[in-house]
Model the fold of this input.
Amino acid sequence: MSSKTSKGATEGKKSKEISSLAKLYLILYNAGQVLGWSWMLYQLLAYYTVDRDSGKTLWEYISLTVIIFQNAAVLEILHAAIGIVPSNVIITTFQVLSRVMVVCGVVMATPTGKVSPGLPLALLAWSVTEIIRYGYYALNLVNTVPRLVTWLRYTTFIALYPIGVTGELLCFYWAQDYARSHGVWSVEMPNRWNGTFSYYYFLWFVMLLYIPLFPQMYLHMFAQRKKILGGGAAAKSKKH
Done:
């Protein structure tokens, strides 16, 4: 065997090894997220049932789980950017950062965001959605996705996505007045940068972004649903 052939075989083996490692990593990542979001859903339900007299607010009760597993989703932007998953980088970035903004920039940043009636709505929609989504991804990596899981993955969003968005917007709304009156993360003149920044107006800017972006994202998900569950020979062939 020539040295060039040997080198090519070595590189091919290395590429295959990297692919296998990436696949193992993704399986572990998705399985870990399933467990994390399942625990979050359990905590959410327990808070309103068996632990309703705990004396804690919902955020105090569930905050650590939310912070860990929602912020861990930032890795999905990296996954898409480096190509180990086929997701669209721009869509993934918006989906992930919009939630991170709610958790870190709204709920963690303001006491009013922590008691918003939108928080349980958002957490319920997020947790059910993510258990199904990450479960689908993990099973897909080992080529064992039950038809029911596929149907849930591309159907439950019809109700859960609007519920989640409603919860997110309520969190923003509950936080904006506190941000204005307390100057949260705002910069006023005079300062050495000779500039100003109003976090209050920024929150409203983000809220207004939902008007053009939500319909686009929602319709995109319907398009994905039609592609996967649309029936016919074409849809069946794509599954195989």
Observations:
- The CA atoms of residues 118 and 167 lie 4 Å apart.
- The chain has one domain: 20-189+196-230.
- Residues 20-189+196-230 form one domain.
